[in-house]
Structure prediction request, 1157 residues.
Amino acid sequence: MNTPNKEKTISRRDFLKLSGASVVGLAALGNLDTGFKKISRAESRKALQENVKYVYTSCVMCPAECGLKVKVENGIASAIYGNVYGPMNSNGVCAKGASGLQMAYNANRIKYPMIRVGNRGEGKYKRVSWDEALDYIADKLLALKKKYGAESVILDAGDVTDRDPYWYLFRAFGTPHVTEHGAICDTPRRHGPKLMFGGKRVEPDVMRPVLVRRPDGSLKNDYSYQTKLIIYAGWNPFTATRINYESRGTVEAKLAGAKIIVIDPAFSNTATKADQWIPIRPGTDPDLFAAILRYILENNNNDDPFRRYIDWSFLDYSQGWDEFEASFKSWWNKKDPINGFNYFTLDWAANRTGITAEKIAELAHTFGITKPAALVWGMNGIGHHYNGYIASIIGTALNVITGNMEVPGGAIDTELVKSDKGGNVKGEAFIKNEVTRKVNGQDVTGKIEELHMDYYGDWPAAWDDVVGDYPRRFLEGVTLRYGPFRGYKYPIKAFFIRTGNPVITGSNTQKWIDALTAKDGDEYRVELVVNIDTPLLETGLYADVILPEASYLERMSLSDIYPSHQVIYLRDFVIDKLHESKTQYDIMIALAKKLHEKGDPDIKPEDFWEKFPTEEDFWNEALKVAPGRAHAGEPLPYPKYPVNYKLIGTPDSLESGNVKIDDDKKVVQGEYVTVKWLREHNGVAIWPMSWHRFNNGGVLKTASKKVEFVWDYEVEKDGEKKRQGQYSKYNKLIEDAGETPFAIAELGWKEYPATFYWFETVWNPYTNPAYTKYRDEYPFQVIWGRVHHAMSGTQLVDWLGRIPTEDLWAPLNDERVVSEVIIGPNGPTPSGRKVHLAKSSWCIGVIQMNAADGRKLGLKTGDLVELETPQGFKTRGKVNLVETIRPGALRMAMGAGGRFSPGLGLTYDFRDETPNGNDLTDPDKHSPIMGMPAYADILVKVKKL
Amino acid sequence: MIDREILEARFNVYRLLSTVYRYPLQSEVLTALTNFELMEGTQSLLESFRELKLSVKGIKETMVENLNIEMTRLMEGPGLTPAPPFASYYLNGKQLMGTAAQTARQTYLKWQVAPKNDSIPPDHISLELGFLAFLAKQALDTLDIQQVEILHASHLFLKEQLLPWLVQFCSCIASNTAESFFTALSRFTILCTQADYDWLEDILSSEKVQEI
Prediction:
């Protein structure tokens, strides 16, 4: 036992006697209690005999949100397993999921509400009560609303999907600006499916088991794989998040005979399972896809079974192909200004991609002839490039014309088939309310949603908001350019960031810091910054108020998963809320009450605590729209119901026929899914799978209910001409205003193109003539990868810091005696506590470099280098010289380095020698349609330090 | 018969300490602290208590606010703090809700008590000190065999639950603050609990108690 030296002269009578020497003292004594209350024998016995229980819930250690089963002993979560009833992960749990207790029970988690007491960035706070924190926030919000309008407030619900309570509250408050992580995730990647299907994510059909209707009418889990080929381009499901089943499914499909091809500058974990790894030059996926499409169009032969690439039945459920093809072919005779080849030829693509013409031809032929197949593209690849849209559009088109969409073993747009959730609790009805603003001296009335800074501002087609461009608007304010409020200007005065960390992940780090710390006189320009989270991340250091959100084991919500058919999980309370944390529902109600008490006319009891008296009531409302998809496909999920009617209700009520059919609304209404129902069914609701769901409209969400290759067109309906297509709304705004958004004006466009288009990426000297001058001096292209962390939010988890990943997160730490650093009155201050770290016992973020490149520069693994861009942005890190990346490319993990929040444990201690890719990102370059930061369009030179 | 004054003093000290470690610090409690007298004890114990009282002499609201800010920084968060006030952190690999927390909870339940604030881990310093205050009160209110049993429980709780981490926790406070209140508090906490432990050892091994 660790006790100090004792003075052994104490006798029993010499022990301290403490007495209150005055009336004040005696009275004060009476106010001191032990902090305990008596409980009955029965209560204590019951608590002591508390059995081990298991709770089904849903993970949040990354956005895959796998189903979990958590063991709880005496009120304490003690082990995490996968939920065997959930098909997304089928009983499996990854390293992140398994380490979840280290998040919930982390000593560094935010425990209490805090108010800042120093400058933003110093990390100095005082603990306050919830009442005080909410008073502060509500007073400020109401003052800002009165002076600048509710539209001056942004809620960014960050990287965790159970955000509906916040969206509901802030929309009711009156701001149109509620957003989430998707805005800085991979929006170019989603563009093709969005334009052509009204969807979002193309994934291979490898989720097994799937529940399928048999010919005899029974439902049975199908474990068979039909896939013959999967091509992953810039997608790494074995390390990436979101689509958990792809890792198991890819292996299983391969065992069942599928070929796997990985196209990636780096030899990723997925590539280790591949039959072929094709190390493409960064930023040239669109070029490769364009060459594949040209090859297929030029070589398709309907009469030759070995050249029958195109399945023309796609024309039955699509429109606009002729225009699309014509626009695509209009490039064929143009010459590339850099390499002189005709666009989209094999030689042209070989020069750009670094892949031989023969290999590209073989790839195109293989994809064309192998059926069923899936071409799938990812976040770090296409999603992070300025022109990623083009790859997404061509990739979608390739899956469609080869007859691979929605066939067993082919490709599925998971957005179109996943269960709906949220419904009224998203709060969309609130932003349909009308408001009046003064615009150029005149009163103008319009809907709240028409005040949106992006959709009616600089980014009308950015359907996921433009978080990466927030710093500019924080500094410059907003000018609306479209819609009824055109010409209206307003500042951004409040930024709520929940479970996100844009200072590290939201584009250039310094630009975010500059925007959050900019002042007008003595006041911060953005007057209120509130951080709601469980760990303390870098963005929290710039907050005025910090609110502790309950960890995922302490809260309830619904999963947001992307399966190949309708499945939904419950996230349930596993343990009691720790410290003073609150759930999203608690925070919504508490802040709503404050706003109402202080006179906000937009916050009404009948919308909040009267409507949702309990948390369960809120989530039951969110479940009312589940599964919410068209009854379509083969085999038909419920043969007794009409095709294409919307299905609502529990699997068992739909199965038993306990439904009402509304032929006017075309809805089959069963019993609503509820929290109670989910608890009684192992936390999961699963509806039957089907394929061919595009037939007869099915699940497609385009206006025409067809796959659309043209995105701005006119139709005649009931004698009236109507404009349709995903770009039509934005083009109409542009035409009405007579003003082109600046980002597409830079491309030379007047408006969004009606069909196929092409433009080059940025900071790529091999494809864009504007950058060829940098090729020699800045010979390296920087791309991003993933490690076993959820972007930036799980670095405080000890286990995950010890798992090497893909040459990006490697045990290259020096031996150190680490002086722990805390935020003191003067900023980061050594705490005096020292921890010895043995060499190579901990993983740090490193720079993956081809070994030959390293030798040319005289480097060896572990050397510290500095990377510098032509703009002068720098970061530093240790190189890891390997064969697992193509020459000329460098790769780093997002969120793995340069981490300066002391709430992150040992990752913080190595911040000076680990790279932050967002130190390098061009702060002014955002992809021109969705405004996504050009994370992977970076050129650098390397200097040894 | 065990000196009732000592039993009363034990109760007062533990409930005072438990309250002080329970955020937020309040001016009434700190003012009351200045009015207490330490009647007897070792030299170092007396000195440390004097220092503690001196550090809050003439306390004003602004001083209380500053102390609460410092307490936040030292123990409350957000993020990494120099002195996390939980046994599990020191005894169970820097995690919360480890076996130390479970053991504390079990102990409370066996004595048919539960923390009034059940949202903090059961091994928080204020709760462990508060439990010792509860046992001290029980000892004060009972006689003979039951009293001895309670004193044994206090001794065991100190030995196995609190003292194994208390010194490290208090050292973390002392080495990370320039605020005299906290340096004095950390020193007094160690000396006081050690003194109580020594007294319990002494009294439980004495002939009179053995006779009982």
Q: What stands out?
A: The radius of gyration of chain B is 17 Å.
